[in-house]
Each structure stands twice: as C-alpha cells, then as structure tokens.
Amino acid sequence: MDKSFRSAFFSLIVNIACCIYHITFGAMMKSWWLLNCGTYYFVLSIARFFVIIVKKGNGFVAKLSGVMLMALSVSIAGTVILNYVNDRGEKLHEIVAITLAVYAFSKITIAAVKMVKYWRASSVKLTVLRHISFASALVSIFSLQRIMLATFEGMTEAEILIMNAATGTCIVISVFVLGVSLCCRSKGFNT
Q: CB within 8 A of 85, min separation 6: which ones?
C-alpha cells in the first residue's frame, strides 16, 4: 500500500505542475484550450490530494472522489467541444507520436489491470486511487488519438473531427460512470 501512496503522491505533484503550467500559459495566451486542460489537472489534483491526506471517513473520501470524477467529466467534455470547434490536434514528429502511443497504451494497460485486480479491494483509498488512475489513463488515450490522427495522414478533416468527437464522448461518459460508481460504492465503505 505504501508503494501505491508514493505513486499517488508523485502523480499529485505532476498534476499540480501540469495545472500550474496550463493555467499560467492559458491566461497569458488567452487560450480556452490550455485553461480547460488546467482545470482538468486541477480537479485531478484535488481528488488525489484528498485521498492522500484524509485519514478517516472512507465513505466520505470515496463519495468526494466520485463527485470529483463527475466534475472531471465536465472538464473533459469542454476539451472535446473545444477540439471539435477549434482544431483536430497537434501534428508531431512520427517518433514522438509513437513514443506517446507507447506511454498512453502502457498507462491504460496498467490502470486497467490494477482496476480489475483491486476491484473488490478492502482498502477504500486503493480503490479510489485506481478509479482516478483509470480516468486519467482514458484521457491520455483521447489525447493520443488527437495527436495520432493529426500526425499520420489517411483521414479527411471531417473524419478526424467525427472520430475525436465519438471517442471523446465515450471517455466523458466512462469517467462520469467511474464517478457514479464511487459514489454508489461509498455507502458500502465504513466511515
């Protein structure tokens, strides 16, 4: 369990740094895209922070984290809408795109395996951390798709917009369901 909390603490530090970066540059550049990404990292930071610091009240931690994941789905929905309205994604060098693909697929695979492994874990905090990690991995997949479709040719602009909107919508719904799941399961956890 200590390893999981060290990992969660490291993820919290990274999320805070990403939040500060995106909000600062979003405000400076007047970019709704960066501000929305900053909001996403802010919500992730709050969720992880409460899981790490709260010592008692497991039901409260699960419910609060569930609400945070539902709020996160709203932020992700904003990102999907901005993607549809403004652009199709950022074109990167093929090697960078492939490296990001390896990272995103590793992240989603590890998160999915741990989610299944700890689905009925006795530790509420471990369960909550797995839900948060899985939600974060889903968003990485959406970001990866945007980059891959922009970097590698083969689809029209309209097809890319439709693909990004469809995948983004599925991820918004999935993250919302993860949040609802935590809220429902919070009643079964000892407080």
A: none
User: Which contacts qualify for 23-32: CB closer than 8 Å, 24 or more apart?
Assistant: 32/82
Q: Each residue of 33-73: pLDDT tens digit?
A: 778 878 888 888 888 888 888 877 678 888 888 998 998 89
CB 58 within 8 A of CB 124: yes
- Which residue from 101, 99, 95 is spatially nearest to 146, judged by alpha carbons? 101
Buried-state track 17-31, b at ≥16 Cβ within 10 A, e below 16: ebbeebbeebeeeeb
**Lookup: tokens for 117:** 């492994």
Q: Give Cβ neighbours of residue 36 (< 8 Å, ≥ 6 apart).
A: 26, 75, 78, 79, 82
Mean pLDDT of 93-112: 82
Q: In the predicted model, is pLDDT for residue 1 greater than 60?
A: no
In this structure, what DSSP letter does residue 117 have?
H
Residue bearing tokens 């935590």: 182
Question: How far apart, in whole angstroms, are the C-alpha atoms of residue 3 and residue 40?
Answer: 25
By C-alpha distance, which of 83, 84, 100, 109 is closest to 148? 100
